[in-house]
Amino acid sequence: MDRDVLKPQDQLAAWLAADMAEVNALIRTRMASEHAPRIPEVTAHLVEAGGKRLRPMLTLAAARLCGYDGPYHVHLAATVEFIHTATLLHDDVVDESAQRRGRPTANLLWDNKSSVLVGDYLLSRSFQLMVETGSLRVLDILANASATIAEGEVLQLTAAQDLATTEATYLQVIRGKTAALFSAATEVGGVIAGASEDQVSALFAYGDALGIAFQIVDDLLDYGGTEATGKNLGDDFRERKLTLPVIKAVALADDEERAFWQRTIAKGKQQEGDLAQAMAIMARHGAMDAARQDALDWVAKAKTALEVLPEHPLRDMLTGLADYVVSRIN
Amino acid sequence: MDRDVLKPQDQLAAWLAADMAEVNALIRTRMASEHAPRIPEVTAHLVEAGGKRLRPMLTLAAARLCGYDGPYHVHLAATVEFIHTATLLHDDVVDESAQRRGRPTANLLWDNKSSVLVGDYLLSRSFQLMVETGSLRVLDILANASATIAEGEVLQLTAAQDLATTEATYLQVIRGKTAALFSAATEVGGVIAGASEDQVSALFAYGDALGIAFQIVDDLLDYGGTEATGKNLGDDFRERKLTLPVIKAVALADDEERAFWQRTIAKGKQQEGDLAQAMAIMARHGAMDAARQDALDWVAKAKTALEVLPEHPLRDMLTGLADYVVSRIN
């Protein structure tokens, strides 16, 4: 297969195949539980559902790009995937989701209890893995990322249904729900490789901007994606989430539109046809295009950040990945 | 007030008052969230509900008993209390509890979502606090304790309603739900103080045995406590949990009794009068007394473990605490 025609994440997967095999083996070993077989059952349902393993690949790519040849990038990549899986399990309880990656969610197949507790187990497993690296700096970064993730989730909960939500609040929410783990994933890759402070900062900035762009695009797809993304069109609207295109449309709303948003988002009195109406209002104000432009701006920041890093095929793939993230809505 | 007539935990609280004031101040600072006011609201509801702060006192006592005079026992005590609070928040979601410490639970006052996410936030805060101590050994102990806690909770979930549950499984469950945090609390106190390996092992053994005795007693009180414990009589029976007295009674059941346990615990078809009937069956087999004797054996182990530690008023209080734990059912 010609590497040039592969998508950037597939190029990364090909380049990092040997490392990823080790990560997958470590994940399988560490998700086991001698005493509680429910744990690997629930975890396997999610971990083996064909996620893209984007976050662990970011850690591996960052470490390799900075010349690392020790063993601990594998531990850190597995750590990052465990944290991600734990947050998905808890998110599905919080969102009362029925589908994830095109399959029924764990809370539906088992119960909310299992999702909460297996999530806790995976978090503690991730914590054990990172302790094994012996790097206090890595632990510090991941502890801070964990706090930002949880805080962002709570903020999202309290900001839902609130039409006064600003773009600044939205940015905090998506830093928590997505960008904090992306930026920690790339940053710890650099730290474990002993990269310079400039390079570590650049890796953080890349992950942060990539994560923000990724989440803006994800939120846009909720108003224009297909079933193939594993999400249902309009989920965010039904859950009354204030995502970027809605925030932009609310800011420009006339009285009639404002009444519409009040009824559907603030009061949650939704009826047949409201989703189409919401999309029409957003289109009228160019809210989707404006949000897409914001995503492009973040992609540009991500790519600029990479300039400090050594020239390397992996750097080119990370650049390509940033472009690809937004191409999903082109 | 004469210290000799105080209960052991009140003696500890008096002796450690200055340290505990610092722990409480640190807890208040670290449970804050700049962006999500829901977090301190939910946390304060639980943290300030008048818990006994037993676990953080164990850490402080262990550290002081081993001669520590640095600042980090305070961080570790706050860590332990945050982990405890996080597990309570998640437990109440899992158990669908309505009351905790005699007050409505957070999942009832707010919602399950807040309990899950604020619990996650407190776990990440506890993680930040322990990283600040700079001790990888402490991190290792607490990471392992976290995994044991989560595993025990899942095991309890899958063992519930299963009449084949053995005393060995019960022991694993209560090590997870209670003893793992007690033993980590005392062990990290010794580690941060630079105590000898013998002393660190003794502190672990004390916390482990104390926690097991504590939980056996707690489970006994569920069939004979008063409302003053903040638990309702028979909660475990209604939730079909296989606790020690039930396991002992099931092991000795005749055919008729076995049918009773099948109906009430395995199938969950409970009716008026079943709780009284369950208690009568357990009394007939001496199951309560036998479980109480097990608790006394663990108390003896806890006290023996302490013998390696230096003679000190705090050691006497820890000895007294072990006796006191079982005196709740005398």
TrEMBL record, chains A, B:
A GO term for molecular function: metal ion binding
Give the range the annotation lists for the signal sequence: none
* Alphabetical list of Pfam families matching this protein: polyprenyl_synt
Set out the biological process GO terms recorded for this chain's protein: isoprenoid biosynthetic process
Domain of life where this protein originates: Bacteria
Main EC class of this protein? transferase
Family to which this protein belongs? Belongs to the FPP/GGPP synthase family.
* Name recorded for this polypeptide: Octaprenyl diphosphate synthase
